[in-house]
Amino acid sequence: MRDILPVLNGWYSAGVPFGLATVVSTSRSAPRDPGAAMAVGPDDEVVGSVSGGCVEGAVFELAQEVVASDEARLETFGYSDEDAFAVGLTCGGEITLLVRPVTAALDPAFGEIAESVAAARPVTVATVTDGPAPRGATLAVWPDRVTGTLGTTGLDVAVTADARGELALGATGLRHYGPHGERREDAVTVFLHSFAPPPRMLVFGAIDYAAAVARIGAFLGYRVTVCDARPVFATPKRFPEGVEVVVDWPHRYLGDTDTDERTVICVLTHDPKFDVPLLEEALRRPAAYIGAMGSRRTHDDRMKRLTESGLSEAELSRLRSPVGLDLGARTPEEVAVSVAAEIVALRWGGSGAPLTATAGAIHPS
Amino acid sequence: MRDILPVLNGWYSAGVPFGLATVVSTSRSAPRDPGAAMAVGPDDEVVGSVSGGCVEGAVFELAQEVVASDEARLETFGYSDEDAFAVGLTCGGEITLLVRPVTAALDPAFGEIAESVAAARPVTVATVTDGPAPRGATLAVWPDRVTGTLGTTGLDVAVTADARGELALGATGLRHYGPHGERREDAVTVFLHSFAPPPRMLVFGAIDYAAAVARIGAFLGYRVTVCDARPVFATPKRFPEGVEVVVDWPHRYLGDTDTDERTVICVLTHDPKFDVPLLEEALRRPAAYIGAMGSRRTHDDRMKRLTESGLSEAELSRLRSPVGLDLGARTPEEVAVSVAAEIVALRWGGSGAPLTATAGAIHPS
After folding, report:
1. Of A356, A360, B20, B270, which residue is least crowded by CB atoms under 10 Å?
2. Is A352 close to B219, i.e. CB distance below 8 A?
């Protein structure tokens, strides 16, 4: 949708109603991901795309209908084998679209959302797609404020809290609720669409543990890069699909790449020659989390070298070493869970204690 | 290998040397998983299989060679497109085999391992496949004892500790070490082969969170089953491949299925009508972990009903509710990490506190 938002905002600002179709879910391999959008505006002008071409005709008519009726529709399209071939798929697939009319009356926050996206300010937009709540109703969640309503206060409160979680990860997808926001019910389906890049996870050291940490990083929504100076270990074959694998000296790679205050950095190298210059670079950069693996002895030795390198107390205090929560983790997967748990706890201020042993809210509101 | 172990043990007991080929790793889709084995014994008798047929000829010769030379070999076979077609693959693949001679002198624990497997007693066998350690050397790890050596005490200690982790999960795969067991080095490759079924994770309630909990359960090595009474939610499509999805009343399904002291049970249903009878059943059964999701209010209400149902204090104390560690988790993936972290901490006795705030050993030895 990001690509066509300037055109949509032009129509919106001019007060012209338009029909907006958004991919809200897909099954098996579909040509476009959730969030892809197509719109039909004045004079039947079409922008964007929701498939490789095969369902656009039907969507065009649906978009006209929703504008005429002022009522949103939810439609699922399956690809026949022939269609699948036409859009370059070999195994079929299915996409579900929400098609809704957009006007200033129905969607008062649309202009503000478009401006945020244009200015690269992160925002998550929640839209009701199904169930006993007004279909097409939207709620926009920024880090510091909320606009709109999904129909009930309970639903607004629950979705706002969850949208903040997805916003931090730049994640997009469906969530289910009860009519008043009950988290373990399924009656109401809400599409959470985040306009923010996913945060980065940088894993240094292509050891056994790195593959497990990379997998759980991807599971949590990170865009993962693994970097190691040794070409025999830093091979894409050893890592899950979608993980970027870089052969370079860790501190040199980190010096040349971008990090921001959401980036997590996991140092799994095992050699002061790699990890001391790497941590010197990391501790002076924006990052949400900087963790380094190693025994207590490695940690003490590393801290000594880092102190000698002139890092300040405040810079050194950012280092989580030894990395992870104390779970007694043994296998690479268990260690990866302990690292992921520490990253989540640091993000939201959790203590790591069992919830059975604490009181108060289970997650921040 | 389990299938051919009785034959191998016959040869071993009779003092006849044989050549044993074991799949230690595969890439892309390969016909057999790590642990599959083929052996060549007296009079060139062949048992077992390591592929769909295409590399068995070469393995036959290798097995004869290793018996003649008394030296283990590591060999990788790639499938050409033609071979791949022959074994029913469409995209090629690669398998790596360790081929080693087995005699009483080279492998004194072989008979004891075979007896354990026959008696369904869990054991993990570690074998050096590559690097500066004696190729083919084995170490067998039972819950209560260890036999054999991989060449250095440091390597034996590290591999024993890790094998206990894999043993608890019935997991099989390669791990890498330094020559003296250094965990973050890669020089020595060791194949850990567990003869134990993977533990079960039972997830009740096919809500959004269930898919995330099922994924992280599979990541940790569990054989995952999701059960819900509602056929529209309990569909395989909503869950990752490999997860069993059952439509049944939770307490009825649990009443009819097997659990053991490694089983983890996650109750994500949202209705006392489902979860009270389910937890009554769960809390009276063998299980490593029984967790139930819900707000503090749901928890209080549930505990009241469970107490009324006549469960003892000891039975009730097994319930982890609200489920998970206090990470402030928001997204389904974050909640799943908090549940996984609690499961691991309970398994090995971890506190959940950050390792930066604790002293002493990072994982149990």
Report:
1. A360
2. no
